[in-house]
Known about the structure:
The protein is mainly alpha-helical.
Amino acid sequence: MHNILEKTGYYDAEGQFDVTEQLCVTLNNIDYVRKTLSSIPQRLDWDQVVSDVTSKEDGADTAEDKRARLWTLVTSADEGMGNKRKQIISKIGEKVMDMI
């Protein structure tokens, strides 16, 4: 991840370590996405969607199974975004520590 950010100019490894505004915006966007993910169930009215899908299917999955699957998707996406954020911040921390 840090190699991609370095190659695209989000920060440089030569001389003084500088973080670009783009990198700050990227980190803010990651945080915004994570906050937005938590509101998806309400925004999309998952309870109604699960109810509608369950009533029209003959499958063995219960409404709780479907709801749990949806939550797994949101949780997985949130964890993935959190991991990317941690990777970026860790690399920035390493670069800053090298300067001290």
